Write the structure tokens for this entry.
Amino acid sequence: MTDSRICRRFVEKSIVVTGAASGIGLATSVRLAQEGANLVLVDLNEKGLAAAKQRIELKKKEITTVAGSVSDPSVIEEAVYAATTWSGKIDGIVNNAGIVGDLQPFCSSTDQDYEQLLEVNLKGVLLGMRTALGPMISQGSGAIVNTASIAATRNIPLFNLYGMTKGAVMSLTRSVACEVGNKGIRVNCVSPGVIETAIADDLARRLGKEEAAKRHEITLRHIPLRRRGQPDEVASAIAFLLSDDAAYITGIELPVEGGYLSQ
Ligand SMILES: NC(=O)c1ccc[n+]([C@@H]2O[C@H](COP(=O)([O-])OP(=O)(O)OC[C@H]3O[C@@H](n4cnc5c(N)ncnc54)[C@H](O)[C@@H]3O)[C@@H](O)[C@H]2O)c1
């Protein structure tokens, strides 16, 4: 996005972003830094984190990185604590890290597939919310955005367990939003459609060139805008929900899917 379209909604704000080394998390981190935020970036991918930090520091913002899994409570505690060290408070957290796992028919799935998806996609979000809510409740403010998926509300072949975890993220978003609204805290999620990131590339690799091209063609027929989304288009929606522009919005799932769900 060109700098002329960027506002400065997060000056002096401290925000944690998980899954920040790549795709939607990286685009969100860049966007928030452009708008003035100080950031704590969390990811399993240490090299990717270092590259993200270097890229964002060009915008002269305060950046801290925490390498590790979002399903490890000590990693999340370290990230939330780091965010509070700049100004004594944490203004936001984006619980975005996620995996697709091994896509296969439900009857062939294993306990290991299920546990791995739950660990990252659900426990990671749960820990992020619960840990950030401690200081947010004390300070009486804060905004949380979780990354769900249209796979929670629309049947996408083989996305059975993945869709289940994202459905749980939506449900938790709504219930926590209702619990903490009276404490000055908003909780929302974005629900991306088909976005061009490493997840999409990895899927295409696993399906093979021919099958991937066939699926791509079919998918585009379901998308009124007739193209896949870009990570920075999801980042815009996340930044909106985190910002005061969304001051009266809580407990929602904001689809960012080129109209996929309307078809
Ligand atoms: N790309 C899409 O089409 C799409 C659609 C709907 C939802 N989503 C969701 O968007 C989010 C971001 O995905 P993306 O498309 O940007 O993919 P991505 O693979 O580009 O980014 C995901 C990031 O999360 C990190 N990560 C994975 N497991 C982690 C863990 N346990 N702890 C910490 N970091 C971890 C990865 O290292 C990676 O940097 C995910 O929650 C995904 O489910 C993506």
Q: What stands out?
A: Residues 111-139 form the longest helix (29 residues). The pocket of nicotinamide-adenine-dinucleotide is lined by residues 18-19, 21-25, 42-45, 48, 69-71, 96-99, 120, 124, 147, 149, 192, 194-195, 197-200 (CB under 6 Å). The chain has eight helices and seven strands.
